[in-house]
Write a structure and sequence with these properties.
Blueprint: H1 3-7, H2 11-25, E1 66-69, H3 77-81, E2 99-103, E3 106-116, E4 119-127, H4 130-136
Antiparallel strand pairs: 1-2, 2-3, 3-4
């Protein structure tokens, strides 16, 4: 005779009784507390009557990379490896076209090269309009 036959219960009955006992002693789950959304508060920038923002101190120390692009070209690696001292690389821009001034890789102005105290510099000739800068982002 098996143990089930002696007690008159089956294994399924024993599991069912165990689950029923666990459910009756378990505490009811509490609903998670809902937190209300709160508006974010930011330090506002002060704006003068002429529209200029005066509280720029928080962004003045952010480093940016300014670069000047004379021109571009595409070439095969085999042609690049054949370049040597004195080689001439033809660029897409024509002589006399303004150079592009980029800040963090984004066009902000155009200018022409100048020499000041035996050092190269850029004289700004055109500042890119906001719409032009936005169109370059794509």
């Amino acid at each position: 005779m098996t143990n089930e036959q002696e007690t008159g219960t089956t294994l399924d009955d024993q599991w069912g009784a165990a689950f029923a006992e666990e459910q009756s002693t378990a505490k009811p789950k509490e609903a998670p507390k809902k937190e209300e959304a709160k508006p974010a508060s930011f330090a506002s920038l002060k704006q003068e009557s002429n529209g200029a923002v005066t509280n720029l101190d928080m962004i003045l120390d952010i480093p940016v990379t300014l670069s000047v692009e004379i021109g571009r070209t595409r070439m095969m690696v085999k042609d690049l490896l054949q370049l040597g001292q004195g080689a001439v690389v033809e660029l897409e821009k024509l002589a006399g076209e303004p150079m592009e001034i980029l800040v963090n890789g984004r066009l902000v102005a155009r200018g022409e090269a100048v020499v000041i105290n035996e050092k190269f510099g850029i004289k700004l000739t055109d500042i890119a309009s906001p719409s032009e800068r936005i169109s370059k982002l794509r």
